[in-house]
Amino acid sequence: MSLVVTSGRQALVAWHDYLEHERRASPRTVRAYGDNVLAYLNFLERHRGETVSLAALGAITAAELRAYLAFRRTGDDALAPRSLSQSLSSIRAFHRFLDQRLDTPNPNITLVRGPRVKVGLPRPVTEDQAHGLINEIGADPDRDDWEVARDEAVLTLLWGCGLRISEGLSLLRRDAPLGQTLRITGKGGKTRIVPVLDAVREAINAYVSALPFVLSPDEPLFRARRGGPLSPRHVQASVQVLRGR
């Protein structure tokens, strides 16, 4: 990294650059993540009465992070529990970047739990929500590039073809590359033919190209980190995040 980073604000600039150019996150995602972390840095500077250095970020206590979350719960700009949870997720992602790229770990960050978020009834996923989550996947530094491609492919497939999670995960290696249509067997053994958008084909092709495992034609196409079939629970978690936005 060419930029010499010694302060928290310089670290934020470096993280922005990482999200935009290496993770290829959307401008909206970079802005949302950045705004959350900037608010966090502003609080720390007011709380400590000084500019926050990179070294200081490695020594932030769990109590300080809890104080920040408590601060964001109050006042005219108080955050709802779901927004507060998203803010904490941004801060955690920022600290993971500090650990992995700037050699500044802080295990205290993992000690702080987010607020409880009330789970409502499922709502239909809009096109904007789908695009938003697909763009945000690349912002997570914990995922390898092939895992990013996988999650983008799964979510693009579900949204673009109108599939249930179980239907999307039923694809086998021999089904890729996809054609113009896809034959899906759903509940009750009923079979239907669904059209395949160009965006879906492109996402599946990108995933297959990045996949680090050699699969036989009859094996499930979507794989977990260690090579086994991808769990529906993993996809459900991503969809739940999407529906909460």
Could you walk me through the main structural features you see in this protein, from its secondary elements to its overall organization?
The chain is built from ten helices and two strands. With 245 residues, the protein is mainly α. It has helices spanning 8-22, 27-48, 54-57, 62-72, 81-102, 127-137, 145-161, 165-168, 198-210, 232-243, and strands at residues 181-185, 191-195.
Task: Give the structure's gist in a few sentences.
Helices cover 53% and strands 4% of the residues. It is elongated and about 65 Å long.
How are the strands ordered across the major sheet?
1-2
Mean pLDDT: 85
How many beta-strand segments?
2
Please report the number of helical segments: 10
Q: Do you know the CATH architecture of the largest domain? A: Orthogonal Bundle
CATH-level-4 superfamily name of the largest domain:
Intergrase catalytic core
Model regions low in confidence, pLDDT < 50 over at least 5 residues: 119-124
What is the CATH topology assignment of the largest domain? hpI Integrase, Chain A
Order of helices and strands: HHHHHHHHEEHH
- Distance between the amino and carboxyl termini: 33 Å
Largest sheet: 2 strands, antiparallel
Instruction: Provide the number of structural domains.
Output: 2
Helix content range of the residues, please?
40-55%
At the first level of CATH, the class of the largest domain is Mainly Alpha
Q: Assign the structural class, choosing from mainly alpha, mainly beta, alpha/beta, alpha+beta, or little secondary structure.
A: mainly alpha
Query: Per the principal axes of the C-alpha atoms, what is the gross shape?
Result: elongated
Rounded to an integer, what's the Rg over CA atoms? 20 Å
* Strand portion: under 5%
